[in-house]
Amino acid sequence: MISKSITYGKFRFGQVDDKDVLNDTFKMRYEVYVQEFGFEKKEDHPNGLEMDDFENESIHFACLNESDSVVGTIRLVLNSPKGFPIEHAVETTFIGEKPHPSKIAEISRLTVSKDLRRRKEDGFFGVESYITKKEGGVLPDDGTIPDEMQGRKNPIIVLGLYQVMYHESLRRGITHWYMITEEKLFYALKKYGFLFHKIGEPVEYHGQRTPYLANVEELLKNLKKESPDMYDLMQTGLEKEYLPNI
């Protein structure tokens, strides 16, 4: 169903290697992107599966619950003659020396099930209750946490999907990640030590989205410095030969 998996509580995260699970990821994306938020047109996806022209050029990842139902998705779009989705959406400026395109991948289609976004303040990714109002969330900007939000755990679906995606990136020698997303996800990732750089102006792309770039080595160094526990967690389940030496 999924391979190279890691488990946290009732959730398993891994790479999709099964046609039925892959279809379930497309179905879940349809439920969120088409039915719930209206980012995509229903008539463009008559089979009830949200797909685009980059699926065959992508590595797909999923989070499964205790019933083996897909409750989270993300994909890495690899280099191909089609280029990257971000290149068709917005003008960007690469930061630093640009590697061969085979060393770059684009993070996209992060999706979290509605059933795991039950808090009234949670939006598309379910991260609003972890970041401040200034960052697009609901926490007070002074850093305090209201009593009703005390004890809330990390956004495990998002972080688990990023972890297995990160593992596969190291296995494949990918050194840079593109990402075009809402600013609130950028701030949520930043909170946990994931360093991305803005590389263009916001555009209308499934709502307002901003383009970002991460140098994976730089991201890891920042993670180790700013959030060593998260850095150690990210290495969990990664084969010894791919562990970073930083």
Secondary structure blueprint with pairings:
Elements: E1 2-8, E2 11-16, H1 19-36, E3 58-64, E4 70-77, H2 85-89, E5 104-112, H3 156-172, E6 176-181, H4 183-191, E7 197-198, E8 203-204, E9 208-215, H5 216-226, H6 228-235
Task: Describe the model.
- The protein is of the alpha+beta class and 246 residues long.
- It has one domain: 3-Layer(aba) Sandwich (Aminopeptidase).
- The chain is built from 6 helices and 9 strands; from the N terminus they run ββαββαβαβαβββαα.
- Strands 1, 2, 3, 4, 5, 6, 7, 8 and 9 form a 9-stranded mixed β-sheet that branches.
- Helix 3 (156-172) links the parallel strand 5 and strand 6 (176-181).
- Helix 5 packs across helix 6.
Q: What's the alpha carbon Rg, rounded to whole Å?
A: 17 Å
**End-to-end distance:** 33 Å
Number of helices: 6
Text of the CATH class: Alpha Beta
What is the 3D shape? Answer: globular
Strand content: 15-25%
- Count the beta strands: 9
- How is the main sheet built? 9 strands, mixed
CATH level-four homologous superfamily name? Gcn5-related N-acetyltransferase (GNAT)
Order of helices and strands: EEHEEHEHEHEEEHH
Q: Can you tell me the number of structural domains?
A: 1
- CATH 2nd-level architecture: 3-Layer(aba) Sandwich
CATH fold naming: Aminopeptidase
Helical amount = 25-40%
Q: Can you tell me the residue ranges where pLDDT is under 50 for at least 5 consecutive residues?
A: none
Structural class: alpha+beta
The pLDDT mean sits at 90
